[in-house]
Amino acid sequence: SSQKMRKHNTAHSGDCQRNAAQLFFLILLCSLSHATYAGGPWTQRQGKGYFKLSQWWIVFNQHYTDAGRIDPNTTTGVFNTSLYAEYGLTDRLTGLLYFPFFSRNYMNNIVSATTGETITEGEAINALGDTDVSLKYALNKPGSKVPVAASLLLGLPLGKTNGGAAGNLQTGDGEFNQMIQLDAGTGFTLSETKSAYVSAYAGFNNRTNGFSDEVRYGLEAGLGIQKKLWLIARLIGVESLKNGETAATATSTSIFANNTEYTSYSAEAAYYVTRKVGVSASFASAFRGEIIAASPSYSVGVFFDMQ
């Protein structure tokens, strides 16, 4: 996820300051469950960074099938405590890290509806989660009116894939993926106290270990009020090419299943408590899905912005 967690005030630089029509902005981009992306085409300035500690979770008792219908399942939860970081290696090149250093996956007891007896004991595992390392490069000069950036993301399979007695508890998918992504966006001033931005991205995710490749895309818009409160809305899509060998339904109640597809919407609020420290909260849900949990996810976090 996405989860993915800020939107940066670099919508424009010197030109913006001269005409007061555009400005830098920094915002959190929250990730969705099993993938996290840096938000937008804005890179960090050299030597500057953005860091966020967050808690993301989803609890669900139903899932989308491969036909897009909703079926019940044993109540299952996934919790990720993660660090997200961005650091400007140069003004045009930013390094990014998403590291879920504590991930918990659990399943409740399966209880007979007629006798009330426990049929299967619930289980849980605690482990590292899959980690994303990426580089984002600004294709045009920082301060451009419509910045464009290209990213390379490497998904490291550090999570556990076969926990529990049945081997169906996971904190990762076990595959090393590589994604290339192109972002474009712009920022503008609405009034003396309100700023806004819009951005879009498209990417191709090459997956290994029998998983199908994916096409990913998204739209995002944000509104800043007095440079302290940011309200963000997102629309994200994932389309599987269904060209893999791993069974799509082997872990259909896992957020790490193969051939997952969805179109999701999310909303986030980020508030700067001080000039550099802030808090955020978000939720995400889906309009439609295939082989994915059918419940909203939530996230809360604390961030530090060096800009």
Describe this entry's structure for a reader:
With 307 residues, the chain is mostly beta strands. It has 1 helix and 18 strands. The chain has one helix at 14-19; strands spanning 6-7, 27-28, 49-64, 70-88, 93-107, 110-111, 118-120, 123-127, 131-138, 148-156, 177-189, 194-206, 214-225, 229-240, 261-272, 277-290, 292-293, 297-305. The strands form 3 sheets. It has a 12-stranded antiparallel beta barrel. The longest helix has 6 residues, at 14-19. It is globular.
Question: What is the compact description of this entry?
Answer:
By secondary structure, the protein is mostly beta strands. 2% of the residues lie in helices and 55% in strands.
Radius of gyration (CA) equals: 20 Å
Largest sheet: 12 strands, antiparallel, barrel
Inertia-based shape = globular
Main sheet strand line-up: 3-4-5-9-10-11-12-13-14-15-16-18
| Number of helical segments with 4 or more residues | 1
SSE-based structural type? mainly beta
Helix and strand string, N-terminal first? EHEEEEEEEEEEEEEEEEE
N-to-C terminal Cα separation, in Å?
24 Å
Instruction: Give the helix level as a range of percent.
Output: under 10%
Care to count the β-strands?
18
Percentage of β-strand residues: over 45%
Mean pLDDT: 86
Low-confidence stretches: 1-38
